[in-house]
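dumping this here before i forget
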Amino acid sequence: MTDAECFRVGAVKRLLKAVDPVNEVDRGITRCIAALPPSPLDTVMKGLTTAANHSVLWGAVAGVLALRRGATRKAAARGVLAIALASSTSNAVCKPLLPRRRPAASELPAYHKLASLSSPPTSSSFPSGHAASAAAFATAVGLESPRLGLALAPVAAAVGYSRVHVGAHWASDVAAGAALGAGMALLTRRWWPVRRTDEARARPVDSAPVLPDGEGLLMMVNQFSGDPDYDPVGDVTRVLPRAEILTVQRGRSIEAQLEAALARRGTEVGTRIKALGVTGGDGSVGAGAAVAERHGLPLVVIPLGTLNHFARDVGVYDLQEVDDATRAGQAVAVDLGMVEVHPRTDADGSDEVVRVRTFLNTASIGSYPELVRLRERWQPRWGKWPAFVAALFVVLHRAQPVRVRFLGEWQTVWFLFVGNGPYHPRGMVPAWRPRLDSGLLDVRWMRADVRFSRLRVTAAMLLGALGHSHVYGQREVPELDVELAVPGMLATDGEVVEFSGRYTFRVAAARVLVYRRDERLWTGRPRPYVG
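structure:
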């Protein structure tokens, strides 16, 4: 026998000796279970462990959770991801590397056959895949919704115990599987960070006017935003009966309509607009915020769009919260992003004027504006989300790098992202803002001058290490000047708005007051994240 073979044999002997105490405990637990008298519990355990085969049980639970938008749907998605990681790790990695004999059928007495499986598994006993999937799903759901996680924990524990009860696993197999599953669920945070609170931080203000029943509020209702079968005018009028309600007119921008309405009110005796309000998505709210900033008026936001990123970050979800906040005069001061669109010299030598755009959430140059342009072209025919998916595939296939000068140097990038405030998670795809009054811009870019840059970024994202990739860059600055070698499109808050060769981004000098209910006064604690 060679030295290497001797070493391996010795290592195996030492390992077997080290696990002897565990084996003794396992046998003792199995003998105790086998000594139990026959009972309906045998049938329940057999049915439960069968239902959990191939994670069918957890798939059904995930399907039910996914029916409701918000935290439950996110919990279901995270649970499915955790199961995929746990199942593949336990079955494809651990079992082949750590073979272990399952409990013999002789370990159970004859009268206990009711609980035994008719077709027992033949793969390695260590670790328990059922326990891994159960713990992974319950833990992952608990990360998004602690209450749901607590409700599922007993079921997951029962699935784990059922594997020992029916004689398919040793107790240590179940314990190891549960630890593996919980670890995989926690690992999902590397790719998909958990958002604990719904509201981003912002400075509360005590100077917001009180608007009982909407008195002094000029409200623009975008009846074309969100659900096409729902007209919000009735509900807004019911909750804010003293507000002046305007509806969007096709062919006219929301900004122009609000400016015209304010101009008319300025010439009428006894009228005073104390605040502006907008119902709709980010585009509608952004238009209202621009007018509010110019006139120094606070803003009421009623989210009725598809995604409502800004309203979610502010922490406004429904009309009841709007009613509470306006009655109490509760508001926060938030930053408003601004971008100066510098003039281009036309062929005839004339110059354009500088245009100023505002944005609530994000602005971008490069591949993303092209994606938005294609989505808008195909949306009337296919619908928003199918059009978005189709546009995404097309853009990824034919994206062209952009030569831009920013942060004092020329770089070739696939895209340049500018966020109104630092976004989280850092070093990953930006998802939310922890605060709304930082006075900073979040600048991110993906270099195109590195070999296999798209492949490297994809690999870094799969490994959860995008922030450590040389292809990915991120800075936080108060102002950003961007010059393009070839004039290109600018998208703000998901819509293509400009085409120029130079843009200057900054945060507006004056913050906009946005009505938000102070959850500490209503519940005594911050609002948990609900989706």
